Amino acid sequence: MTDRIYTAAVLVIGNEILSGRTQDTNLAYIAQGLAGVGVILKEARVIPDVCATIAATVNELRAQYDYVFTTGGIGPTHDDITAECVARAFGAKLVLNQEALKLFQAIFKPEELNEARLRMCHTPEGAALIANPVSRAPGFQMGNVFVMAGIPRVMQAMFDSVKPNLKGGPAVLSRTVACELPEGAIAKGLGDIQTRYADIDIGSYPMFRRGGGFAVNLVLRGRDPARLDAATQEVAEMVRSLGGNPTLE
Amino acid sequence: MTDRIYTAAVLVIGNEILSGRTQDTNLAYIAQGLAGVGVILKEARVIPDVCATIAATVNELRAQYDYVFTTGGIGPTHDDITAECVARAFGAKLVLNQEALKLFQAIFKPEELNEARLRMCHTPEGAALIANPVSRAPGFQMGNVFVMAGIPRVMQAMFDSVKPNLKGGPAVLSRTVACELPEGAIAKGLGDIQTRYADIDIGSYPMFRRGGGFAVNLVLRGRDPARLDAATQEVAEMVRSLGGNPTLE
């Protein structure tokens, strides 16, 4: 157990997310995975396929956090520019990665290994490959930046393969107390509990019930199970004291 | 028709998104709406419920783009700090908004109008309310920053109510050519078309078919319908020339 907090940012690269055409799901997947290994996700950004923007944002984030996870832009088409932009961010050359080349030579006949596919074998000089068990074209790690695919199934496989090697801390655990009291009625009691549990992050998330009316999920997150359980008990009791019927999830 | 390009950023505020607990869908909704009124969404950020971070990010984004849309953090609980942080960003006082107070006085009995609910009637001084036809607690506009709820149904209603007043340009239109050729086979032809149509944004998005194997959506976006249709025809012909069977969506 260590006091050092490890932090991360997610950088979603792609016009298709900013146009609303594609619903991103990679952020939530990475976020949950990071919580499991005790790495704190501090921010996420979504940016377009513009090299200057990608390079500048990679540099800003990698200086600020322990880990940066990028998704998108590593295919063979003209809009797949992440590798060259990450190379630019690091002031590194974009080179033909011999290990990636061997992977591709095993997949494609020589006449199929065209310029576009060879582009996918390029990484910044010094990068280590991230395996892609789904569709084989690899991602790569350059310094503290993990460059992954945008397709969720591929991204998930890549992230799962790098996750065990991340330095983190105790997993961030979560408890949920659901109830049907209005937020305005529980706000004071909840705030009082938050004040007494500075090490627990307490959030209140109202939602619509399908049958009509609001419900609220009170979510507690922390690394110390005993403290988390104590705070959760207090929240449940507070709900009960206000006439509510708390459900622990 | 104007040459002026109007730009926007989305700022998603909330620990629940960064923990992976909640899957954000507001970004895609706002993105699609902005495309419809010809406002270009340049970036999105997801940040935690930390006032200094919220204020600094609001200031960075509002200086850089025509519009900033924030989601989340305007309820009555202790983690709802967006209004005070936006006030801080603008160097404005957080004041009891008389119009919001009237709304709340119409909903709640005097004894129900507790401190937590009165918090929701506070806005930065000079803000204009954004109506909430779903659950009534309003959002607000301060300068070029639109502060909206996090609950999707409420956020959507708020966004829809401000959208008609945004200055934009011609709608950004979209065409999709779907095919089952591998990206590596079409990359060269697609890149050539992109080079000749600098005003059209062409993206290539591979996906898994349910039955197995890859398919690719080639998405073209632009403001000039004639140019867009011409480029789409060229993409479809290119796919056909490579033995593919293009489907226009």
Plain-language structure description:
2 copies of one chain form a homodimer. The longest helix of chain A is centred in the last third of the chain and has 17 residues, at 225-241. In chain A, helix 2 runs parallel beside helix 7 (152-162), helix 3 crosses helix 4 (82-90) and helix 8 packs antiparallel against helix 9. The first copy, chain A, is built from 9 helices and 12 strands. Chain A is elongated. Chain A has helices spanning 15-18, 26-36, 51-64, 82-90, 98-107, 115-119, 152-162, 183-196, 225-241, and strands at 6-13, 39-47, 67-71, 94-96, 122-124, 128-130, 139-142, 145-148, 173-179, 201-208, 214-222, 247-248. In chain A, 48% of the residues are buried. In chain A, a hairpin with a 5-residue loop joins strand 10 (201-208) and strand 11 (214-222). The mean pLDDT of chain A is 96. Chain A has 2 domains: 6-165, MoaB/Mog-like domain (Molybdenum Cofactor Biosythetic Enzyme, Chain A), CATH 3.40.980; 173-248, EIF_2_alpha (Alpha-Beta Plaits). A 6-stranded mixed beta sheet of chain A has the order 2-1-3-8-7-6, with helices on both faces. Chain A has 249 residues and is an alpha/beta fold. The interface between A and B is large, with 71 and 71 residues.
